[in-house]
Each structure stands twice: as C-alpha cells, then as structure tokens.
Amino acid sequence: MLALPGAARAELQLSLYGGVQEADPSDVTVSGDSVVADDEFTATWEGRSLEAPFYWGARATWWARSGLGFGLDVNHAKTYADDETLAQTGYERLEFSDGLNIVTVNAYYRWDRALGPVTPYVGGGLGVSVPHVELTEASSETFEYQLTGPAATWIAGASVPITERVDLFGEYKGTWSSNEAELDTGGTLESDIMTNAVNFGVSFNF
User: Fold this and answer.
1) Tell me, what DSSP letter sits at residue 36?
2) In this predicted model, what pLDDT tens digit does every residue of 102-123 receive, in sequence order?
3) CATH number of the domain that 32 lies in?
4) Do the beta carbons of residue 5 and residue 118 sit within 8 Å?
5) Does an H or E element contain 83, and which?
C-alpha cells in the first residue's frame, strides 16, 4: 500500500490511516419495492469523516526489492444523503454510515527515497463493496451489511521514515463502487458511488 521508505530490507508493511473523505453526487435507483415507490434521483452525499463512526482504513503490503508492492486494503468510507436529498425523496434516512466499506487487492510502485528521505508511491486495485445499507421510509427499513458489487481504488502519496521500523505517510485515495443493495421489503437500491479522500497514517515495517 504505501511506500516503505528506505527499508528495502523490510518485506511486510502494516498500515493504519484516517483522514478527510467526501463523495461525489450519484444517481440512485430504487425499484421493485413493495413499500417504497419506484424512484430515480440524484443523491448529494456527505462524508462526515470526523463524526462517529469515524472514517479509517487499514492495509497490509508485501514489498519486493524491485519497488513493486502487493497487498490487501480495507477502507471504511462513509456516505450520508444530505437534507435536500432526503426532503426531495421523502426518506427519513439514506446512508452508508457504518461504512461504504471497500475491500481491494492492490498493486503499488514506490520510488525509494527519491526525494531525500521522502519515498513517493502510486497504486491501484480491484475488489468489492460491503456497505452497511441504511434506508428508512414510513414502515420500510433496511439496516444491514451487504455485498453489493465490484469496487476499485487508486492512490498516490509519499512516506517518510521516523525510525527504521516506523513511517508516516500522506496520500490521496479515490474509490469507485457499483452498489446493488436488496431492500428488506423487496426490490433494490442501485448507485455507483465515487469517493475522494486525503489520508494520513502510520506504517510498521517487518
């Protein structure tokens, strides 16, 4: 995932990060539900990264001496429909607040200490979206984790060593997910959601 700054010797890196994340507006389709009427609209999403439950991520990366890295990334992104969207649709709640959770297998490339002590890196990967789907309207309520579709991520950042085993890093991280969620009363909710985040974190090298 992120760059392993001068430690070409370290093969495994474990990282934790947080930051500020938002989501682009996206088209939403609700169809086939026995309670909620079929509907198509554009949702404006809020990230609320610094409100509980907080935005966060974790990943493990194996680095080769060539500068290539491969690993697993779990990203607890969030989206909340804003007040205008709720007023437009009549929903009491429409959000993925316990996570628009994106799980991806990633590949990375780093330029070890290309800028003095700083190691830039880029990466990307493919995986799945496992959000906590929350839709409430009148007597209809969906409130559960679901596997809703494919996802992708792209990353660019840089890391700096603090000790031989610990690095600090900052990065831009984007995600895309195609979500088709099942509603408790029947039917589906569909939306392709794109998020953008500025992350800061710490890595431990082994």
Assistant:
1) S
2) 999 999 999 998 999 999 999 9
3) 2.40.160.20
4) yes
5) helix 83-89
* CA 205 to each of CA 6, 58, 121, 123, 184: distance values in angstroms, whole numbers, following the listed order: 11, 14, 16, 18, 44
Which amino acid is it at 4?
A: L
User: Does the pTM of the predicted model rise above 0.85?
Assistant: yes
Q: Amino acid identity, residue 144?
A: E
| DSSP code, position 85 | H
Is 6 inside a domain boundary? no
φ, ψ of residue 62 to 5 degrees: the values are: -105, 125
Closest listed residue to residue 168, CA positions, set 180, 157, 181, 152: 157
Q: What is the pLDDT of residue 38?
A: 67
Q: Which amino acid is at 132?
A: H
Work out the pLDDT band at 187, boundaries 50, 70, 90.
confident
The enclosing H or E element of 34 equals none
Structural domain count of the chain: 1
Residue 2 has pLDDT above 70, yes or no: no
Is 4 part of any domain?
A: no
Q: Which of 28, 38, 27 is nearest to 187 (CA)?
A: 38
Strand runs labelled E in the chain = 12-23, 26-31, 39-43, 45-46, 56-63, 68-81, 93-110, 119-129, 132-137, 140-145, 149-161, 166-182, 188-205
Structure confidence by residue, pLDDT tens digits, 80-97:
999 999 999 889 999 999
